[in-house]
Write a structure and sequence with these properties.
The chain is α+β, with helices and mostly antiparallel strands. About 30% of the residues lie in helices and about 25% in strands. The structure holds magnesium ion (2 copies).
């Protein structure tokens, strides 16, 4: 692993393979969570399942015990579970999911010395069409951002792509939280904001691995933190969405090291009975 510029680590092919493997465990976990999310389920039970799943794969939950820049309170769970107006960093608890909720499940897996980080916003039962649209367009913003993650581009190209897509629909882009480098540490340089200008910021190059994670609000983009030291909510109480992949630059092009394929697969099974 070569260190270029300040704190940006360039990964070797072996390092990227390790992240691919962490990412596979994480992606399979999302497939299982997808099957479990339903009306009547307690969010704490999703977290208990996730922790066991990760440990059973000889891996470690990246988030449990994590002390962020938000303060000294260690994160108590393996999943961040953020329901409706909670944008990110929600704590699993005794809340019972109800019809029409949307629930962002963010998770990190540490395996063979490397982390992977991925989030998906799940639908609970039947959600309102305008919320459905928010989720679809946030997902599309992620995919469009990933497409800009190639050698020679800059971080700002990703940021601008995500921002311009989300703002086309009048949605808000959260400014206080950003994507990040991923590697031996869960959060590395560079920061990957979901807003910014084309051609600005650090240059992208082969071997960089970053988490791209648009956090998009249906109304105002302003957020507030709850007294628990973690939970971030929209100030207007409107819903938000969050989708995240860990992406490496391989042969000059983006390669998602996490995938939602297991989620899509599990949902097909559900629909087909
Ligand atoms: Mg995450
Ligand atoms: Mg992240």
């Amino acid at each position: 692993m070569l260190k270029v510029k300040e704190n940006i680590f360039i990964k070797t092919a072996t390092d990227i393979q390790a992240i691919r493997e962490s990412g596979k465990i994480l992606s399979k976990l999302h497939g299982e969570i997808s099957k479990m999310v339903a009306v009547g389920v307690k969010t704490l039970d999703l977290d208990i399942f996730a922790e066991k799943f990760i440990l059973d794969h000889n891996a470690t939950p990246s988030f449990k015990g994590y002390k962020g820049s938000q303060g000294s309170i260690a994160f108590p769970a393996s999943l961040c579970i953020s329901v409706n107006s909670v944008v990110v960093h929600g704590l699993p608890n005794h809340y019972i999911l109800k019809d029409g909720d949307v629930i962002s499940v963010d998770c990190g897996v540490f395996y063979n010395g490397f982390h992977a980080d991925s989030a998906y916003t799940y639908r609970v039962g039947n959600i309102k069409p305008e919320v459905e649209k928010l989720l679809d367009e946030t997902y599309t913003a992620l995919i469009k951002g990933i497409a800009k993650c190639k050698s020679g581009n800059r971080i700002g190209d990703i940021s601008h792509e995500i921002q311009s897509h989300a703002e086309k629909f009048g949605y808000g882009i959260v400014r206080e939280l950003v994507g990040h480098g991923v590697g031996r540490k869960l959060h590395e340089a560079p920061e990957v904001p979901n807003f910014g200008k084309q051609g600005k910021g650090p240059k992208l190059m082969n071997g960089m691995v970053i988490a791209i994670e648009p956090m998009v609000t249906m109304g105002k983009r302003t957020v507030k933190q709850e007294k628990d030291g973690w939970t971030i909510k929209t100030t207007d109480g409107l819903p938000s969405a969050h989708f995240e992949h860990t992406v490496g630059i391989v042969d000059g092009k983006p390669e998602a090291l996490t995938t939602f394929d297991y989620i899509v697969e599990s949902q097909k099974v559900n629909y087909n009975g």
